[in-house]
Design goal:
Mean pLDDT: 92
Oligomer: single chain
Order of helices and strands: HHEHEHEHEHEHE
Number of strands: 6
Shape: globular
Length: 172
């Protein structure tokens, strides 16, 4: 690829994270911050999220590591292996019709019954900050980078990366 591109290319292979995706970074950071903020109240609240799979798995694994009960709402069209991953990490799983109304109806039901805190996979500041650790690692591992190409889905990765590296290099 270096020869084809005429440049030295470096890859950040986030598929090797324990949960199989970069989403673990943001989930772990958000839960760690939640634990820090609720340490004085004498217990950690459960958490709930919406996910088609990767963030749910990352949140479930983070919750298991940190001892926080987790609930994941997934569309009933999610691949079975992603559903099994969430369950294997110890979270409770609710399958939902793939509509916004059903997703948030299920989230609100879990919140009302368990007191869970909702953690968005892309709209939560601590999740975005956790995704930004990729940029910090890139700068440490390859200090002479001049550009980074970042894929965009929900936006948490590019948001976090842009905050972490914007002063140093170009981001595409």
């Amino acid at each position: 690829l270096d020869l084809l591109s005429g440049r030295r290319l470096f890859f950040k292979c986030e598929n090797f994270q324990k949960s199989g995706a970069f989403k673990f970074r943001g989930a772990f950071n958000a839960l760690s911050r939640l634990i820090d903020s609720s340490a004085t109240s004498g217990g950690y609240p459960p958490v709930v999220t919406l996910s088609s799979g990767n963030f749910g798995s990352g949140l479930a694994l983070s919750a298991r590591i940190l001892g926080v009960p987790a609930h994941v709402i997934m569309p009933n069209t999610s691949p079975e292996f992603k559903q099994r991953a969430v369950l294997a990490h110890g979270a409770s799983l609710t399958l939902s019709e793939p509509t916004i109304q059903d997703y948030y109806g299920n989230v609100n039901q879990v919140k009302n019954v368990t007191g869970a805190v909702y953690i968005s996979s892309s709209q939560h500041a601590d999740v975005v900050a956790g995704q930004g650790t990729m940029g910090l690692e890139l700068l440490r591992q390859v200090p002479d980078l001049d550009a980074v190409v970042v894929p965009v889905g929900g936006g948490s990765m590019i948001s976090g990366m842009s905050v972490a590296i914007k002063v140093h290099i170009r981001l595409f």
